[in-house]
Amino acid sequence: MWKYFVQATNNMRIRNKLIFSYLFVVMIPVLIVGGIITAYFRQDALDNAIEQTANDVDKIKSQLSTMLSVPISISNKLYLDDNLKDLVNTNYTTILQMVQAYSKYNDFEELPRLYNEISNVRFYHYNRTMINNTQFINVTAKIEGEEWFQTAMNNPRIGWFFMEGSDIGTEKKLSLVRRIKFKDYRTPGVLVITLNQSMLNSILSKETFNTLIADDSGYIVAAKNPQNVGKTLKQLDLNIDMHQGQEQTISRRVNGVSSNIIVDKLTPQTSLNGLSVVSVFSTQGIVQDAKKVGWIGMALVIGVLILALTLIFVVSKLTTNRLLHLSRQLNKVARGNFDTISFLDGNDEIGQLSRQFNYMVRSINDLLNQVYESNEKNTKLEVAQKEIKLKMMASQINPHFLFNALESIRMKAHLNGEKEIANIVRLLGKLMRKNLEIGSVKKTLKEEMEIVRAYLEIQKFRYEDRLNYELIVEPETERVLLPPLIIQPLVENAIIHGLEGKEVDGMLRVRCSMKEDMLHVEVIDNGAGMSEERRQFVLATLDAEEGEGNRIGLRNIHQRIKLTYGDDFGLHITSIPGQGTKMEFMIPTGGEIHV
Asked: Where are the transmembrane segments (predicted)?
């Protein structure tokens, strides 16, 4: 079967091969992938909408929880209010006495003015000597029959009810209901704190989708559309289990439209019941744009595929003839005829290939000679590399001999009681060893400052009281990585050119600090300084290819900083004649900190 297929394919013309290959390898897979991508975009848009809605619901829960915490806090305060206890449990013999008591207790009037989250506070009691007003109401048989009153009297926890503003029947609002039992008098009462409806609705006003807050009975207590407040979820065709305690995502038809519903319940602390945040959005509205883009994309792809199929018929004919001609020329070269020349016009790939073919034939003999010469050069290079390696291995003897000799001198000085000379020899050996160990790997600032300190101690031994130094290194800079041997040459330059001729009180300071995410290094001396003309000349030589010998170190540091961190960085020099010179640089740490 396979042999038959291969034979049939080989017998086909190139044009037909291109067409069939295009159909099975390009057109059909592209159409399949296009369909899959369209479905993916649709699902991705839906998933993004669900995720966004879930985030919005969480945000609403947080805002609602913050708002509900205000009446809870107020109820906790009133629960322990002795003034309220005395007011409700006093037997009033005259109306004047009762009016005076009302006038003294004004907390219920002040609380709505202090807290925007609430609109009304009232207390239901059994003291028959009190006359009803908007804040203190006697319990009647009708009130005792209300579900919210019975629930509060039978349970000490806070309840949340969508109830009338008073017993005479006003607009229903979400209210906190809590039983207050006065222990000293053994009389109960019910505290009702009504929430501000406008503030509740404002929590939902900026939501993208239709969002509402419902109680456990299914009553809508707040909504993005205020007209829905007071309705039930059933009236809005939202049949949801309000006793589900966790977040749930439901897919169903709402008013005949395929929709997704996100429900999440909030039960405040010490509460008997809670509230549910419900967000509804139409699936069709979410995926409509994704489907539209998908269909437009599919139409464009199909149009392009058909156009490409038409062009294949034309291009394949021209291509086949030219390839056959070039194939005949290649066969001649394969037989060893390097005088073959291809005559194909055109500037397309085949025309370029023809010209490259001619160039290849002309160059093949040169290439053979170049390969031969290259092999000879490689052989010589390998020999040279081996010789260099042997010399490098031999050169390692000299540093070890030098270190051993310095150590012998140090020990001899130490045994003879010359501790200062022994210490200087030790520092010199340490400095030379550090310099010989320097490579391309970055070192910590702490290691760099060890070299600087060793160098300064040696110079201190040389200049004695003529030279004083101070190293100021902030602790957070010690682990910063930087190119090796980049501070010591600045110190050496400052001593040689700045402090060399100073008779007394020579001072050199090295300060390392962090400025945001940049390492700032300053080398300051109080030496001879330089004129502005001289300073400009020195700065000009830092970027030069060659310079005087006494500026090689500065130029090396300046160019290494620029090569490592970019052209925005490098050495900066300020100087005042007779007062001293400051050399400084800043480099980004970029997270390069030794752990």
From this structure: 20-41, 293-315
